[in-house]
Design brief:
With about 800 residues, this protein is of the alpha+beta class. Helices cover about 15% and strands about 35% of the residues. It contains eleven helices and 51 strands. Strands 22, 24, 25, 28, 29, 30, 32 and 34 form an eight-stranded mixed β-sheet that branches. Strands 36, 37, 38, 39, 43, 44 and 46 form a seven-stranded antiparallel β-sheet that branches. Strand 43 (about 600) and strand 44 form a beta hairpin.
Length: about 800
């Protein structure tokens, strides 16, 4: 037994003191750095004839106060003795091991190890004079394994060790509890268990020669287990986007096993793949490619059928001004042309400097080209101010036709990404900006991260540090490592949220009448109530929203844009009817604070994407603007950072209203709606039937109109949308009507009032489909006034 142990230690710890005539005690030492800022010291003692009864670790300065015993033989006691750690007991076997973790010790090599037996030293040396084996193994190591992104239960997988120097040579990798076998230099093979649960991450562990677990992580690069082992699909191309733009990406649809993704050709030449999945590839079109039709095909050697090819049209967009210098009051002509097709194309044009120039038709407009050989369009630009001016323009192309790209416009919990792979968030103590940044940088340095941004979250009394992951580890692993840092109060990935909008049918304007808002509006219009729309951007220049947006701000860093989803939601809440055929908002007197926390995924369709970091900043900003209501027509996974921000807003008396989600009957609870202090709203149609894609669950509080809703769209248009986003906006508008009626209502009191006065739908009482029932603001206003009203 002793011989085998010393053989292992000779590899892992460079044993010292072994000779034909050994010292009174043979001691081997090893050290490693951990992600929590500590150094682990392993002491292996081979006692002399007399059993050792004391081991003393003497540390320089006052560092002994930060030393912690991690493991020691049974029966040994830890004592602090001045600047030393003193362990007393008795060696019960010829060889035993101690493990000490020492924190915040800059001069680790000045530590001294003493082993005593019967009041005399049998070993007494400084670490600096003792051969010491050191390796770095922690959650901050620069990657562990190159691993498949998706695996199946029972599958045999091979992985590559990315950096063998990060682990001792005599250790053992364990993947999902199964020992990995070496199949070559730095290659490992393992047969995954048949009972791995679908959707779970894999546990990756490495045990050193002493049996210590020195790496313990959930799924390198966030590898997930799929539901069942899928048979390999034959590579094939089924289609692609009709139009693509030179210098940009184009999507190609089909079946693309991993080995076939580099075998795509454009006109027979290798294509540059910028992103790939099982069913979708994104290819970058070179700037040097000629405009016009091109063929996308796969290499027959990789298994593609040459007959299964697709045709795309590469386009070049040109914009010019007849004069790029204007005097105030003078005009010039702005011209656009599309090369590569004679089909009419739609352009999205935005005046970025409205105080300096004007363009007939508004600052944000859609222009259709003429088609034909010229295929262009022109508009006059007039100088109205002084300074540099700029105009954005781009093509509004049809969306990607691939089947699994539908999640872009109608996300579900099964298809959308749950988190940003290379980003992790942490909350730290708030303080002066320079000091807070220094703390974040120190945390980043200790954890293999880089600081992307540090922003105060005054509502929660903390600062939010956004880190980019510099090494090969996934966000889940990094978040676990950060959570162990005493300077971090909360750590998590940056989760992804989507706006909760679904498909449309025909135009209806039934919503205000269905909830009794038309009756209440004769008394209250929500005047003076500040309501935050935390969403994508809002078209502040829309005629129906004129003077409705009191303030607006962007927290995404992408600049203010008049996006579809934010504009639709704002219109349901506060728009003014501009004609007999146009439905007005529920609370047209409310003052909107528009906060862009989501980025539009399409110029015309109501789809946008948000993140934990932007939603947290949006909530914080809105709370500081003294809003009484927050509308969050978004949904995503459970999120501790978002929960903390919502809780802080609720404690300020703010009513937080959120969408129950559009993930269907089997969808998981949608957050923030599922948080206890949030009003969760589902959608019904004009007949009171539940929206088919609505998420069910005990967290649902109310139902409101949300199918075929007519509202304001960007560019001065009206537009239809459906989903729990629309229903949420109805509830927020109703809350604004009630807050004008009684300004002292808290968010919790508003929630209780709306639930108590809802009309029961479905089965009797509260249920998982409709919650407490259909929103009825007329009954709520009557109860608040303590009188009868002619409600429907």
């Amino acid at each position: 037994m002793m011989t085998r142990l010393w053989t292992v230690m000779a590899i892992a710890a460079f044993c010292v003191g072994l000779s034909a005539q050994p010292k009174p005690a043979a001691v081997s030492l090893a050290s490693r750095a951990a992600g929590d800022g500590s150094r682990s010291l392993l002491v292996l003692v081979q006692p002399p004839a007399l059993p050792a009864d004391e081991v003393r670790i003497e540390l320089p300065g006052s560092a002994a106060e930060t030393a912690v015993l991690m493991t020691a033989p049974s029966g040994w006691q830890l004592q602090r003795d001045g600047r030393a750690i003193r362990l007393t007991g008795a060696a019960q076997s010829a060889t035993f091991r101690l493990r000490i973790a020492v924190f915040n010790l800059a001069q680790f090599d000045r530590a001294r190890v003493r082993v005593r037996a019967q009041n005399r030293d049998v070993f007494n040396e400084q670490l600096v004079s003792t051969p010491l084996h050191t390796w770095e193994t922690s959650a901050t190591a620069a990657g562990f394994l190159a691993f498949p992104l998706v695996v199946s239960p029972g599958e045999t997988i091979e992985v590559t060790v990315l950096d063998p120097s990060k682990t001792p040579a005599d250790g053992q990798w364990m993947i999902a509890g199964v020992p990995a076998q070496e199949t070559g230099k730095d290659r490992l093979k393992v047969v995954l268990p048949d009972d791995l649960p679908a959707g779970s991450p894999l546990r990756i562990s490495f045990f050193d020669g002493w049996g210590e677990r020195v790496i313990d992580a959930l799924s390198v690069d966030d590898t997930l287990v799929r539901e069942a082992r899928a048979a390999p699909a034959r590579p094939r191309i089924t289609g692609c986007a009709r139009y693509a733009f030179l210098g940009e990406s184009v999507c190609v649809c089909g079946e693309f096993p991993e080995g076939a993704r580099t075998a795509i050709r454009i006109d027979g030449q290798p294509a540059t793949v910028t992103a790939a999945s099982q069913h979708v590839l994104h290819l970058r079109l070179p700037d040097t490619m000629a405009p016009g039709e091109h063929t996308v095909s796969g290499d027959a050697a990789a298994g593609f059928d040459p007959a299964e090819a697709a045709t795309l049209t590469a386009l070049r967009l040109r914009g010019s001004l007849d004069a790029n210098e204007l005097l105030r009051g003078t005009s010039t002509m702005m011209r656009f042309a599309v090369d590569g097709t004679g089909d009419p194309m739609r352009l999205l044009v935005r005046n970025k400097t409205p105080g300096i120039i004007t363009i007939p038709g508004g600052n944000y407009q859609e222009l259709d080209t003429s088609g034909g050989a010229a295929n262009g369009v022109e508009r006059r630009v007039t100088g109205t101010g002084r300074g540099n001016f700029s105009i954005d323009y781009r093509l509004d192309a049809p969306p990607c036709p691939c089947a699994d790209e539908t999640g872009v416009t109608q996300p579900s919990s099964a298809s959308r990404p749950l988190l940003v792979p290379r980003r992790v968030l942490a909350t730290i103590a708030a303080g002066p900006p320079a000091a807070t940044l220094a703390i974040a940088q120190a945390i980043a340095l200790a954890n293999g991260l880089s600081v992307a941004e540090v922003v105060p979250l005054a509502t929660a009394g903390v600062a939010l540090a956004v880190f980019e992951i510099a090494d090969g580890l996934g966000a889940i692993v990094k978040a676990a490592a950060l959570a162990a840092d005493p300077r971090v109060t909360l750590a998590q990935p940056d989760f992804v949220y989507d706006t909760s909008q679904g498909a449309n049918a025909k135009s209806l304007t039934y919503g205000p009448q269905m909830i009794g808002a038309d009756i209440v509006q004769t008394v209250t219009r929500g005047e003076g109530v500040r309501l935050a729309v935390i969403d994508a951007g809002v078209d502040t220049g829309h005629a129906a929203l004129a003077r409705k947006v009191a303030e607006y701000a962007d927290v995404t860093g992408t600049g203010w844009t008049p996006d579809a989803h934010g504009t639709l939601v704002a219109g349901v809440i506060a728009s003014e009817s501009t004609g007999s055929d146009k439905a007005g908002g529920i609370a047209p007197g409310a003052q909107l604070v528009a906060v862009k926390a989501c980025v539009a995924q399409s110029a015309r369709r109501a789809a946008a994407r948000c993140w934990s970091s932007t939603l947290a900043r949006g909530i914080d900003l809105a709370a500081q603007k003294n809003v009484r209501i927050m509308n969050l027509s978004v949904g995503g996974p459970e999120d501790r950072l978002l929960a903390r921000m919502v809780d802080a807003a609720s404690k300020k008396g703010i009513a937080v209203v959120s969408a129950a989600g559009n993930d269907g009957p089997s969808g998981k609870p949608s957050y923030p709606a599922a948080f206890e202090n949030v009003i969760a709203v589902t959608a019904v149609d004009a007949e009171g039937r539940l929206y088919s894609q609505a998420t069910r669950g005990a967290f649902v509080d109310l139902a409101a109109p949300g199918v075929d809703i007519l509202s304001t769209g960007p560019g001065g248009r009206t537009q239809l949308f459906s989903g729990t986003s629309a229903a949420t906006a109805f509830a927020s508008g109703a809350a604004a009507l009630l807050l004008q009626q009684r300004t002292t209502l808290t968010g919790a009191e508003l929630a209780a009032l709306l639930r108590d006065t809802a009309k029961d739908l479905g089965t009797g009482g509260r249920d998982a489909e409709y919650g407490d029932g259909l929103l009825d603001v007329c009954r709520a206003a009557a109860k608040l006034a303590n009188r009868q009203a002619a409600c429907r």
